Amino acid sequence: MPEQNIPPTIFHMLEKNIGKSIRVILDPSYGFEGTLAAVTREPPGIWLSDAEAIILRATIAQPIPQVAAREERSEIFIHLNAVQRIEVLHPPSRR
Question: What gap in Å lies between CA 41 and CA 61, rounded to an integer?
Answer without folding.
Answer: 41
